[in-house]
Amino acid sequence: MRRLLPLALLITAPAFADPLVSTITEGNAHTNAPESWLGATPHIVFIGTINGYDFDAQFMDLNADFIAGVDSKREYLPEGEMLRYADFEFGLQAIVAGVEKTFELEFENHDFSTAALPATFDLQSEEFPMGALSNLEFEFEWEGNGTSVNEEIANWTGTLTLELDSGVGTSDPQGDGMIGGYVDAKRGDDHLVASFTVPVNEYEIDE
């Protein structure tokens, strides 16, 4: 798997960062961005700088009191009498440094169910791409002190490595199980590294 930047450079936010600009969770276990998937225990970690916002978010216990909720789902698209597993997304709502924040990552492919895991997808901008390609959209939102932040960031390059997904290998919609993987993505001067393993809550068929 290729690396886009030295990972040690990613954690650059100052110790007393403005929580409306930086998202830094307390008691972080990792001093650098992870170089690979952190494993099957549920977690969400994302580290980097995006549109001038700094992230060192390490949610290693998804049942922690400061986490309001974790939602994830698979989305399916009809094709004749079949369904294609074309999208998965997961989101988290949490209080970080006294600010209520929402985050969501979403990935697309023509049909994730045909992948042989672990599978690496090159990130690009096309929707529902065929083969070993995917795209990423990262959304984050919060407000405070008269400031409102609502960003939807797409058009990344880099890689998604899908390590775990109980929705792979079956054509039947799956609204449970787990999804886990690793992301190393770049967009201009922005760089995002993420590791995740999340329980799936639902599925949706997009007509």
Automatic annotation (TrEMBL):
The keyword Signal belongs to this UniProt entry's keyword annotation: yes
UniProt name for this protein: Polyisoprenoid-binding protein YceI
Annotated signal peptide: 1-17
Statement: the UniProt record of this protein carries the keyword Signal: yes
Keywords on record: Signal
